[in-house]
Design a protein that fits this description.
This protein is about 40% helix and about 25% strand. The chain contains 4 helices and 6 strands; from the N terminus they run H-E-E-H-H-H-E-E-E-E.
Length: about 150
């Protein structure tokens, strides 16, 4: 009986260890809160408008709007951790894009739009007492902060 008890304990310990490893691996594979692109791409305003349809929808889609403020903070922390460009963009968003408590940035890009160095920002938003389900595209002049483009999508 002792041998069986020891084997059973070892199996249980092995299963527990494997379960812990898989939990850590799954957490590491979760989708990012914020995607930063810094590849020097050039766009027209029409191409910026099309980004809403071509960029993957964010993990925050379908979450309650009540969670938007916390999700926004998480996204901006992630952007800041993505290097100098991400930190610069996160600072710009913090200063320039008002936190209305109903939107979460999920994609940012340092790009050139019609010859102007710009920030491209996609966010997901929802009506009060609803869920995050709509997208909005923004383009800002990187130097002046002026809005070059803004449009909501589905």
């Amino acid at each position: 009986m002792r041998i069986w008890g020891a084997r059973q304990a070892m199996r249980l310990a092995s299963v527990a260890a494997l379960s812990a490893i898989m939990s850590v691996a799954a957490a590491g594979c979760s989708s990012p809160t914020f995607v930063l692109v810094d590849e020097g791409r050039s766009y027209t305003l029409d191409e910026v408008a099309a980004l809403q349809a071509t960029v993957d929808r964010p993990a925050a889609e379908g979450r309650p709007v009540a969670e938007a403020a916390a999700l926004r903070r998480e996204a901006l922390i992630e952007a800041r951790g993505a290097g100098a460009t991400g930190a610069e963009l996160a600072e710009f968003v913090t200063r320039t894009v008002p936190d209305n408590g109903r939107s979460v940035p999920y994609y940012g890009e340092a790009a050139v739009i019609d010859g102007v160095p710009a920030w491209v920002l996609l966010e997901i938003w929802g009506a009060e007492e609803s869920v995050l389900e709509n997208t909005r595209a923004w383009a800002f002049d990187r130097e002046s902060g002026a809005v070059l483009f803004s449009a909501s999508g589905p």
